[in-house]
User: Which sequence fits this backbone?
C-alpha cells in the first residue's frame, strides 16, 4: 500500500514480520513517513499474548498493509470505548417505596 492510500481512521489488514505470527486488522491512528501506527482491532488467537504485550498497538511499514476485508476465525481486540445506557426503573417498586416514605 502507498502512503497516499492510507488514511487516519481506516481499517486495514496488516502483517508484522517480527512481532506477530499471523495477519491482523488494525485502525490507522497516525501516519509516519514510511509506516503507520495501528490500533489492533482483530487478530488470530495464536497472537493473543503478543498483542497484549504490545498494548493493542503496533507500527507497521506501508508495504505490509492492505485494504481490509471481513475477518474470519479471529479474535476481536477490546477497545477503550464505554457504552452508557440508562436503566429503566421498575414502576411498581418505585411506587411502593414512595408510598412507604409518605406514611
Assistant:
Amino acid at each position: 500500500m502507498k502512503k497516499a492510500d492510507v488514511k487516519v481512521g481506516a481499517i486495514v489488514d496488516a502483517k508484522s514480520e517480527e512481532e506477530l505470527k499471523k495477519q491482523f486488522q488494525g485502525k490507522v491512528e497516525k501516519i509516519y513517513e514510511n509506516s503507520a501506527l495501528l490500533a489492533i482491532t482483530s487478530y488470530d488467537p495464536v497472537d493473543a499474548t503478543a498483542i497484549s504485550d504490545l498494548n493493542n498497538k503496533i507500527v507497521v511499514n506501508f508495504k505490509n498493509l492492505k485494504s481490509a476485508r471481513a475477518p474470519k476465525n479471529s479474535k476481536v481486540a477490546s477497545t477503550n470505548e464505554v457504552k452508557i445506557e440508562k436503566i429503566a426503573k421498575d414502576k411498581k417498586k418505585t411506587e411502593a417505596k414512595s408510598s412507604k416514605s409518605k406514611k
User: Anything to note?
Assistant: The chain is about 15% helix and 30% strand. The two ends are 73 Å apart (CA to CA).
